Amino acid sequence: MTASVTSFDVARLAQVSQSAVSRSFTPGASVSEITRRKVLDAARKLGYRPNAHARSLITKRSRIIGLVLSQLENLFYPAALQQLAERLQRDGYHVLLFVNRNADADADDLVGEILQYHVDGIVLAAATLSSSLARQCADASIPVVLFNRVMAEAGTRAAHTVSSVRSDNVGGGRAVAHFLADGGHRRIAFIAGNEEASTNLERERGFREGLAERDLRIFARGVGNYDFAQAQLATRELFAAGLERPDAVFVASDHMAFAVMDTLRFELGLRVPDDVSVVGFDDVPQAQWHSYRLTTVRQPIGPMIEATVSLLQNYLRDDPPSPAENVVVPGDLILRQSARGGATPSAQGGGDARL
Amino acid sequence: MTASVTSFDVARLAQVSQSAVSRSFTPGASVSEITRRKVLDAARKLGYRPNAHARSLITKRSRIIGLVLSQLENLFYPAALQQLAERLQRDGYHVLLFVNRNADADADDLVGEILQYHVDGIVLAAATLSSSLARQCADASIPVVLFNRVMAEAGTRAAHTVSSVRSDNVGGGRAVAHFLADGGHRRIAFIAGNEEASTNLERERGFREGLAERDLRIFARGVGNYDFAQAQLATRELFAAGLERPDAVFVASDHMAFAVMDTLRFELGLRVPDDVSVVGFDDVPQAQWHSYRLTTVRQPIGPMIEATVSLLQNYLRDDPPSPAENVVVPGDLILRQSARGGATPSAQGGGDARL
Q1: Quick check: A257 pLDDT over 80?
Q2: Which residues 6+ apart lie within 8 Å of A273 measured at CB?
């Protein structure tokens, strides 16, 4: 009888997660005293004893997830980092941080270094990796998840060993195009992020497709490279005297969109949205600030983090390891005050509205 | 002859740091191929062979620094995190992240967990720790540095084993008081951060002292708890109809100051600085944004990070370990457009100016 009691039975009786039961029996794992006491009580009542083999499988893990990050100035990443760290911490894992200056180069040097820490998994939020290194991680049974990006060479063998989580960049770009076109704009500009980044490639593709569906094309185009100062420069060029002025700008990130709005208002004396509509991408917390009230495509960080952690855990749990997956999480267009668009009248009101 | 050749001689000849020499001889340590080749060349020329004992001392280290962080929404912390991670990475160390929801509670539970990762050092940027745990870290020869905070019970034995790095909060608060008083303000309000945090206690103390030196007192006081939404509420209360209105507000962080400015302008219809001057603390990147152009006290992140890393490295290098230190880094008042003040006329011009 006792032999068939599992950690799930204990979890049910103690009203905690199965992971909390594991941690309660893992020396040194993170679990509150209250939870541990509940678990031990329930285990005693059920006659449960943790499986020594299962426990050794757990404890031989480093419980470290390597994370490669780049510029934390783009406010999307601090929010994602905090949620990832908290989410993993709840399961007794912690994030070991690696900073990659060039956000969209491959991270082979860095990943080699990460592997020496005997990490249980790797999340790349600021790089991709080469096919050969992807294979090396696969051979070492270390799951790799690309966060907010996808490998350029989809279809190569590497793509089958590396998972990815991103939001629906193509759908978001298309929704912005429809929104601006249906709001009567005819001279719609685009300010790109890093032109080689998958985020930018996908957002621009969706945007072009959406405009084409309204018989429009991109009226003018600049490159801000996901950088505040470069977005200011791009805005000055797009709105230079003597040129016909865009009546709307889709900016590939909120971080750049703030630079665009400030430049339009305070350098060029233009009103947003009366003279020019501005739409961003990400929905960082600052997009709600009253100075901006930025209409933007939300990247849903919570679901993206949840998908990332699931991919890691499924891989670590399953034998043989679960195959790589490319997860695309849908996002919403969040309507605020920075753009006139083709939405229902209520969406133009005071609060945030979703299209 | 050869016996007396040290890693410093190799470093000099190879024109790299001594730490790069160590890493070149440490299996698995981070060093570029170019650097490693330079080092190996120089070592061969000089007949240098690494000291096996010294190397084992290096390699038995985990090369992990535990970092406890809280809300990354306050934009000071992402910038500090990125600089700390990059600075440590240059020396072959990496940051293991622990998130503490309550930024100013003690972190004893978390630190117990950190110690199980066999970290080489701990940086607390979002907590303090109890005397008993400080002693435990000291017994394990693990240096602890409080970043942007200082232990409440200075003078206890724990304070002698835990170092701290902070900017001159008292001096900054005093400079703001003088600046606003000398600019002719007479109803100067204060919006506090977390009232138990050392940052807030010190900033408020310096501010009170500075006002007293101008025969003024705090005219009205609210608490924003370092939170955007709570700072909005505090602003509404301070400027409620029927009350005599403050003519200036010193806000204990930039992050809250943005909320104050938005509330004054967009909810209350007041002009900044014409009707109300606003001064912040931190000088986060957004303080330069044209929508805010916030006058603020700069916390010099670079020197603060440098001091933090030095304290860790000195402790790890010295035998017996170097004693704990409390480092205070001076900061400047950065004059922008959000406040009228008693500065030279040039300071009121277009660019940033330091007082």
Answers
A1: yes
A2: A337, A338, A339, A340
| pLDDT tens string A35-77 | 888 888 888 788 776 654 344 344 567 899 999 888 788 889 9
Give yes or no for B187 touching A (CB within 8 A).
Answer: no
Q: Which domain holds residue A315?
A: 64-166+301-328
Let me know whether A42 and A89 are in one domain: no
Select the residue of B113, B262, B289 nearest A30 (Cβ to Cβ): B113
Kindly identify which residue of chain A lies nearest to residue B259, measuring between CA atoms: A289
Task: Identify whether residues B173 and B250 lie together within a single domain.
Answer: yes
Instruction: Please state, in angstroms and rounded to a whole number, the distance separating the CA atoms of residues A9 and A32.
Output: 20
Mutation site, A59, A72, A116, A271, interface B, largest B CB count within 10 A? A72
B113: nearest CA in chain A? A30
User: What residues of B are in contact with residue A69 (Cβ under 8 Å)?
Assistant: 82, 85
Query: Among B82, B97, B109, whose Cβ lies nearest the Cβ of A72?
Result: B82
Determine the straight-line distance between the first and last CA of chain B, rounded to whole angstroms.
56
Question: In chain A, whose CA is at the least distance from the CA of B256?
Answer: A289
CB atoms within 10 A of CB B203: 29
Count of pairs with CB atoms under 8 A, one residue in A, one in B: 103
Q: Are residues A122 and A242 in the same domain?
A: no
Burial of B84 per CB tally in 10 Å (0-12, 13-18, 19+): buried
Same-domain status, B12 and B47? yes
Measured CA to CA, the distance from residue A147 to residue A306 in angstroms comes to 11
pLDDT in tens, B68-80: 888 788 889 999 9
Q: Which of B69, B99, B115, B271 to mutate to test the interface with A (most CBs of A within 10 A)?
A: B99
| Total number of domains constituting chain B | 3
A299: left (phi over 0), alpha (psi -120 to 50) or beta: beta
Interface check for A177 against chain B (CB to CB < 8 A): the answer is: no
Q: Give the CATH number for residue A94.
A: 3.40.50.2300
| Stated pTM of the model | 0.81
Distance CA A296, CA B53 (A): 58
CA angle, residues B291, B292, B297, in degrees to nearest 5 = 160
Helix (H, G, I), strand (E, B) or coil at B260: helix
Tell me: ipTM over 0.85.
no
B328 DSSP β-pair partners: B166
Residue A101, burial from CB neighbour count under 10 angstroms (0-12, 13-18, 19+) = exposed
Of the candidates B58, B59, B42, which has an alpha carbon nearest to the alpha carbon of residue B6? B42
The span from the CA of B153 to the CA of B143, in Å, is 18
In terms of DSSP bridges, do strands B277-282 and B295-298 run parallel, antiparallel, or are they unpaired? parallel
| CA–CA distance, B19 with B279 (Å, rounded to integer) | 42
Q: Does B76 touch chain A (CB under 8 A)?
A: no
**Spatial distance between the Cα atoms of A125 and A112, rounded to a whole number of angstroms:** 16
pLDDT at A344 over 60: no
Find out whether B106 and A318 touch, Cβ atoms under 8 Å.
no
Crossing angle of the two packed helices B254-262 and B228-238, in degrees rounded to 10: 50
